[in-house]
Design a protein that fits this description.
The complex is a heterodimer of chains A (about 800) and B (about 220). Chain A has about 800 residues and is of the alpha+beta class. Chain A has 24 helices and 20 strands. Chain A folds into four domains: about 1-55 and about 245-410, no CATH class; about 55-240, no CATH class; about 410-495 and about 680-820, no CATH class; about 525-655, no CATH class. Helix content of chain A is about 55%, strand content about 15%. Chain A is elongated. Classes of the chains: A alpha+beta (about 800), B alpha/beta (about 220).
């Protein structure tokens, strides 16, 4: 038999329309996930590139928190450039007597090189800055003032000259929490805010006639920049923290998508196998009449391709809707304004990846169908593939998934890492769920209905192992995310127990300490803080060749140090019996994470750079901070004698009723204009919202994985209908009534649902417990009755679904099934 | 002699779409006495198997009445029918119809367990021993030969000491050796328990062993 037989195709597709529909839904889910993430990534890349150029505010930008060195300033002189500086401050309105924590930016004439700062009046920003300040709308609203009113910044009163409608070099969303105030660069000094130790980010923005030379010019400036203090970047690269966040965000999404697609793929394979198994007799008959394996495989492949195409197109359409609707949601989580849409690139990429995934998972059932022999007309026989074929198809499937990952992540090393991580998750979940299902299948409880229900799991069509694996894996990952989010929320956001501070005071000068305490009139604990760098470990220069974005985590960036003789409340010693040994001044106590990063312990000798002065100290103890609440945590503690006279700032924190925060801020700002008071409750709420959004994304992607599990459950129930009806007939013949059969169905699905729930929740508890203890270093959250819901809800869902699909079958009359051979 | 089964004017009509109705049974009358072995025979399509399913309450007649052990099958509820099948009737089918997910022992014990019998397992073990299958008790149906499957089915039919056993071509799927063995066992166990046996068969050898032979043609009893 050669050529295509459309009628045969049509009849076969109709004969398995329900299973094919489930297969198409699995493809739809994969297509939706891939296209959505692809569309998001493409849109974010474009927005980030645009934002980066504007955000840098020049072709080459130099950064420093210390005054720029003469060498760097001289090198920059050769090119057109402007200066800008940013710092946190508190603005005070004499009119309303309100204060506002805000970000002050001093800019020179010429700013911004790229983009513009449109003002409400329509004039140029520098015209307005000659008259006073330019502020964004939030400043006016929160201080309850208007353009023309005055505000006090530091020790100087300024007139509000205009309102800015937008700002080109300002990240948005959670990166732009504090409202903006612009001031002329030359007026910055007159605020009196720039004091020793004040945190001020200084920038030199350079504009080149030929922007393509940015790399060369940046390299030239780097040659003269002070190492570890002055940083030079080009516009081609987004800010390190922004780039790293976006990269992490998409790596996280990629992992979720791959997991969802892999689980959905099992759904594709399972539904397709069920359909093709139901066609076994037909295939055997056409083989009897001379059809070749090629005929079989080509015809069924066409049907599979058309079903996959329908699923892909529906997924693409849904992705388009999702992308269009997700702009605000995504912009809140990312440092750029994104208007996602389904680009041609994303559509083509998802088409390729979807085809790859569908092919990878459909290949094995199709191949097995081609092995059906004509003898299957006479008797049921399993088509047995060779061991070599199994290995080949297995290797093909793994390669296809790796290729999918590589395509999405775009980095071989990271893809390999994620593959290993996902394989470990899958293997762990597979082994645990496999063992539990095997145990339950082998168990022979005394209760007859229970034993009969477990017996139904043994039928090959039941697909119990795969259903339990998929649902419990999805639940495990989902619950892990929920539990970790809850742990962070409880410990860092909701924690705020009565003793936790909610108002921080920064940049208190040492000579203001006494007066500040008196003015505040509260029992405030003040901390001295110095920003220091580790220069040498045991006499060897610290290696800073690694990626700059990891410096802070690796102890190579600036560390917070506190001169004190007391162990902070939140800290406990993990190495060493006392904070310091004896009274020698050259000692340092180091926090555990930094000790690990620097690979140092008690007795190691460290050399620090404190405001350019090298200071040596021996590690005397290692501490861990429990990080509960918003209490300060210092990486380093020094005996005060070691760093006496070194520049430092003082900060303090208090807990106040929310209604008293505003008045206290005003009182302090009036008396100490340089002191920044920060109400962190707003920031905490914002972080909480972002965390919820991230968990929302996990829910979305793993939700599609769960749907795949549910589809397999339905598919398995459908393909087992005939067997189940026949078995029900046998039970009836032996005297079972409808009540007994219904009990069996309920129990079978209840045990299935409960097994998935228990496994999913159990694995999540183990993993999230480990993450909380070893990664986040916070106590495990108290979940209370929520854990019970997490256990019960999926179990009830699976029970109801399984019963709904299976209930009709048991009520059919037995006679027709007994006539079957 | 007391009768365990009385069928009066039983009709069974199958309605079909776009085709004339099929009258599978046309006014059948039949009575089976306690302990009697009745063979029902006749050409293919004459209604033998339909008669068996209707007499056993697995299917309802279109008209007429069927009384088993004093209970009218046609007016019984599903619950009553289930109880009747469990306690008073045993079935043996040509295709064995064993539950594939249960072992031989579990298949045999199931009706007794359903009846709440505490000794179900030991009784099932004894029966399997009687038919020479004690070493196959923990095998699943797919691990058994045809003859073994049918012996398991015999044990299952007899475990609740049914008053009436219906057997539909019990040797039809077996070779002559296994067929003879199964028939011997069936008759021996039936006699031992004092059950009545209604057996449908084409085989003249089987029919020759019966106490009484009922011949059917075109849905009617033509000779009794």
């Amino acid at each position: 038999m050669t050529g295509r037989h459309p009628q045969f195709l049509w009849r076969e597709a109709r004969a398995g329309v329900s299973q094919l529909a489930l297969f198409a839904v699995c493809v739809f889910l994969a297509s939706l996930s891939i296209a959505a993430v692809s569309g998001w990534r493409h849109s974010v890349d474009l927005a980030l590139a645009e934002e980066t150029k504007k955000g840098a505010g020049g072709d080459v930008v130099a950064f420093s928190t210390e005054p720029f060195s003469n060498e760097l300033l001289e090198a920059a002189e050769k090119y057109p450039h402007i200066l800008s500086s940013e710092m946190f401050t508190v603005a005070l309105s004499p009119k309303s007597d309100l204060t506002l924590f805000s970000k002050l930016k001093g800019v020179e004439v010429g700013y911004p090189y790229y983009g513009e700062v449109p003002l409400e009046s329509g004039r140029n920003i520098h015209q307005a800055l000659k008259e006073g300040l330019v502020v964004e709308q939030r400043v006016l609203e929160r201080l309850e003032i208007e353009v023309g009113d005055s505000v006090k910044i530091g020790s100087r009163l300024f007139k509000i000259a205009d309102m800015a409608l937008s700002e080109p070099d300002r990240p948005l969303g959670m990166w732009g929490v504090s409202p903006r105030i612009f001031v002329a660069f030359d007026d910055l000094e007159s605020t009196g805010l720039i004091r020793p130790g004040s945190y001020l980010e200084r920038r030199i923005h350079i504009k080149l006639d030929d922007p393509s030379q940015a790399g060369l010019v940046a390299e030239e400036l780097r040659q003269v920049a002070v190492p570890d203090q002055e940083r030079v970047e080009t516009w081609q690269r987004p800010p390190v923290n922004m780039e790293r966040y976006v990269e992490n965000f998409f790596t996280f999404l990629d992992m979720m998508v791959i997991l969802a697609v892999a689980l959905g793929g099992l759904g594709m394979q399972s539904t397709l196998s069920a359909w093709l198994r139901s066609r076994q007799k037909t295939v055997a008959v056409v083989r009897t009449f001379g059809a070749t394996s090629r005929f079989v495989i080509s015809h069924y492949s066409v049907i599979v391709f058309l079903a996959a195409l329908a699923g892909y197109l529906a997924g693409l359409l849904a992705a388009g809707v999702l992308l269009a609707a997700s702009g605000d949601y995504l912009s809140q989580m990312l440092p750029v304004v994104v208007a996602p849409s389904l680009s041609l690139y994303a559509a083509l990429e998802s088409a390729f990846l979807c085809l790859l995934v569908s092919l990878a998972f459909a290949a094995w059932p199709l191949y097995q169908t081609s092995l059906i022999r004509p003898a299957a007309v006479l008797r049921d026989e399993e088509s047995v593939a060779s061991r070599a074929a199994r290995w080949k198809f297995g290797a093909f499937l793994v390669s296809a998934l790796f290729l999918l990952l590589l395509f999405m992540v775009g980095d071989l090393k990271k893809s390999a890492f994620i593959s290993v991580a996902l394989l470990l998750v899958g293997a762990f979940s597979g082994v645990v769920s496999g063992l539990v299902v095997k145990f339950l299948k082998r168990s022979r409880p005394r209760h007859l209905a229970l034993r009969t229900a477990l017996g139904s799991w043994r039928a090959p069509e039941a697909k119990t192992e795969i259903v339990v694996f998929i649902i419990s894996t999805c639940l495990a990952v989902l619950y892990t995310a929920v539990l970790c989010q809850e742990a962070v929320k409880q410990n860092w956001i909701d924690a705020m127990p009565p003793e936790s501070p909610n108002l921080f005071f920064l940049d208190i000068q040492p000579h203001q300490e006494k007066a500040f305490r008196e003015k505040l009139g509260l029992d405030v604990k003040l901390f001295s803080n110095m920003r220091v760098r580790v220069l040498k470990v045991n006499g060897e220069d610290l290696d800073r060749s690694g990626k700059r974005e990891y410096w802070q985590r690796d102890g190579r960036g600036k560390l917070d140090a506190n001169p004190t003789l007391e162990l902070p409340d939140n800290d406990t010693l993990v190495e060493g019996d006392t904070l310091y040994k004896g009274e020698a001044p050259d000692q340092v106590s180091i926090r555990r994470d930094m000790a690990k990063a620097l690979e140092v312990g008690i007795g190691d000798r460290l050399t620090f750079g404190v405001q350019g002065v090298p200071v040596e100290a021996t590690v005397s103890s290692v501490r861990r901070s429990n990080r509960k609440g918003f209490k300060p945590s210092f990486e380093l503690l020094f005996p005060p004698a070691l760093v006496e006279g070194a520049p430092r700032t003082i900060f303090g924190s208090v807990r106040l009723p929310s209604e008293e925060i505003g008045a206290t801020q005003t009182r302090i700002t009036k008396e100490f204009p340089n002191v920044v008071s920060m109400d962190i409750s707003l920031t905490i709420r914002l972080i909480g919202e972002r965390l919820m959004q991230m968990v929302g994304l996990v829910r979305y992607f793993l939700g599609s994985g769960l749907v795949a599990g549910v589809l397999i459950l339905i598919s398995a129930a459908w393909s087992a209908r005939r067997r189940r009806a026949r078995e029900s007939a046998y039970y009836k013949v032996m005297g079972a009534d409808l009540g007994f059969l219904n009990r069996v169905i309920w129990l079978e699905n209840a045990i299935l649902g409960l097994t998935c729930s228990v496994l999913g929740l159990g694995m999540a508890l183990v993993v999230s417990g480990l993450v909380c203890k070893y990664r986040l270093d916070i106590p495990f959250p108290e979940m209370g009755v929520s854990l019970l819901w997490m256990l019960v809800l999926p179990a009830v869902g699976v029970t109801i679904l399984g019963w709904a699909v299976g209930r009709k079958v048991v009520s059919s009359r037995p006679a027709p099934y007994l006539r079957e051979g | 002699m007391t009768s365990v089964l009385q069928a009066r004017a039983v009709w069974k009509t199958y309605q079909r779409e776009d085709a004339p109705d099929v009258e599978a049974l046309r006014g059948v009358d039949l009575e089976v006495a306690a302990g009697e072995f009745v063979a029902v025979t006749g050409p293919s399509g004459c209604g033998k198997s339909t008669l068996l399913t209707v007499l056993s309450g697995l299917d309802m007649p279109t008209s007429g009445s069927v009384v088993i052990a004093g209970r009218d099958v046609t007016s019984s509820s599903e619950q009553e029918l289930a109880e009747l099948r469990n306690k008073e009737i045993g079935f043996v089918f040509q295709s064995f119809h064993l539950v594939s997910s249960m072992t031989a022992l579990e298949n045999v014990a199931f009706p007794a367990e359903l009846a709440g019998e505490q000794e179900a397992i030991s009784r099932a073990e004894r029966l399997l021993d009687q038919v020479g299958l004690s070493d196959r008790a923990h095998s699943f149906p797919h691990q058994l030969s045809g003859g073994e499957k049918q012996r398991v089915a015999l044990c299952r039919a007899l475990i609740n000491q049914a008053k009436l056993i219906f057997a539909d071509e019990p040797t039809g799927n077996l070779d002559s050796h296994n067929g003879d063995q199964v028939l011997e066992l069936l008759i021996a166990l039936q006699k031992e328990q004092g059950s009545s046996l209604v057996l449908v068969s084409h085989s003249s050898d089987v029919v020759a062993r019966a106490d009484r032979v009922v011949r059917m043609k075109d849905g009617k009893v033509v000779a009794d």
